[in-house]
């Protein structure tokens, strides 16, 4: 008999971001490996019989934490599952898998990303005024303090360290199951070639110029380090490189202040904002390096998808995706976004065709693609499910 697993998420709309998309990719892969998965959500559309919407949709505001908790408990009274797996901090579940890392760390690093001591202090002080975030933070704290509470399935060592640091969660309550992505996503050759033509035209370049195209993809430009990235790009101008580096920026972030900064730095002709694009694979196919000098990322899908596409990466130690590749072999890891000198050095290193090719070959030869696959994530989760079920039988 197949194991029945309930995965709890807040909303079912995958257009909302990487966390929602990851859960549905995971659900499909668990089903492919013989698990009977139901999605329990507060809001969204019921697009299949495996999706259960437990609260009334309210377009004006999101469902409150306590409202969703009550609806879940009522559902669980009449529906039985072998494993209850949640991405929201409920202490009555078997596994808590925080897609955004711990709330304590995310609040702290979001404040740091403003790069202004006064604003950082204010953001930390006022963070608790956000009622929803405070409810989640308190729920996470209760979950960690509860004896025999849920196992925390951490997306990376960075996330595991957060729970040890902020909540003193013991090691026997933490399982590291590194993040993964679908590794065989296709790109549209015709669309990607059109995209490259647009990029080169707007940058006033020709193919013969042989630029080194850096791809930055994010919706929160501040948190993901676009400001220090622009400063680092300006610093690369002090060094003569084999190929000139240019920055392609993708995402829903607001570009105005960054365009102003680029102009102030004298690099406005070295960057291009594309806005949101439907298929990140098309952009990865026609650029050379993925760069994300983030202030906070539990395990970036963008960096993992870049590695799956065989692209060298540049990121920071504040990105849990660094678990999945070797520094100086598959990419460059900078200690923090503010270290713009090291960030510039990483860009300069990859402004060389031989270095790009060497790194790409290492990514392929070391089979990183399989290591970061969603199939591997599902297999490790099923093993954790079995461990929890067996432990329950022995009690």
Description:
With 395 residues, this protein is α/β, with parallel strands linked by helices. It has 2 domains: 4-180 and 373-394, Glycogen Phosphorylase B (Rossmann fold); 189-371, 3-Layer(aba) Sandwich (Rossmann fold). Helix content is 43%, strand content 15%. It is built from 15 helices and 13 strands. It has helices spanning 18-32, 65-78, 103-112, 117-126, 131-145, 157-167, 189-202, 226-235, 256-265, 280-285, 301-308, 340-349, 353-365, 368-371, 374-394; strands at residues 4-11, 36-43, 51-53, 83-86, 95-96, 151-154, 174-176, 212-217, 245-250, 271-275, 289-292, 313-316, 331-334. The strands form 2 sheets. The chain has a 7-stranded parallel beta sheet, with helices on both faces. Helix 3 runs antiparallel to helix 4, helix 8 (226-235) packs parallel to helix 9 and helix 8 packs across helix 12 (340-349). The protein is globular, with a radius of gyration of 22 Å. 42% of the residues are buried.
Short description:
This protein is 43% helix and 15% strand. By secondary structure, the chain is α/β, with parallel strands linked by helices.
Mean of all residue-level pLDDT scores? 93
What's the CATH class of the largest domain, please? Answer: Alpha Beta
| Helix-strand category | alpha/beta
Can you tell me the CATH topology of the largest domain? Rossmann fold
